[in-house]
Design brief:
It is built from ten helices and nine strands. By secondary structure, the chain is an alpha/beta fold.
Amino acid sequence: MKLNYQIQGSGQPMVLMHGMFGSLSNLGLVARALMDRYQVIAVDMRNHGESPHSMTMDYPCMADDIVELLDDLNIPQAHLLGHSMGGKVGMQVALNQPKRVSKLIVADIAPVDYKPDRHGGVLTGLSALAKARPTTRQRADQLLAEHVEEAGVRAFLLKNLLRAEDGHFDLRLYLEGILANYYDTLTLAPTGNPFSGPTLFIKGADSAYIQDKHRTEVMRLFPNAELKIIANAGHWLHAEKPDTFNRIVHNFLDDNDH
């Protein structure tokens, strides 16, 4: 699948992969912090943003999407940075195709199975939004608010609004493809042979996505992994504490970089 992408800067290639319901713009602050020293390639994952739609959506195929993009750009090896779902995709690439990955950075997700109820309200709200096709952003927010309490989460989700020619709002997301896979394949852990390359997990201290009980599996699959924790940050750590997040990323990349 030919993913939509945006390239900024020059230097060693660095692929940025967003999380569920996001798009390449979500990691914009990270891209701007890296583009002075790296060729930053921000992607829309399949069924997100302006990338193609598919009813097939699991971590192996999304990892293949990234490898195909690297092939198309004639990039033999790149750093990978992924948040949440994008972090699982990055892990899957490293476990499947270790020679394509220089360094791996995983933001607030672990290589484990997750219960599928974390986004239940979001999926219900987005489905209601897609069905209603509101004509104003205010109405769209009202529809979402019936299912999603946090204003910040709603603002993030509403970035997916796209005005159609008839004046109504549709979603950039291919919700049908996400819903078809969300409750099974998208909750699963990435699998494969251990990746021995440099790996950094970054956790928001207030987030429960990375827990102490995950350490054994992290070290089994990523024996060269380290963990950094950002205080007073939740799951959206790269947006909540951008300066701290970007400094941690820079320090990790600078360490014996080549």
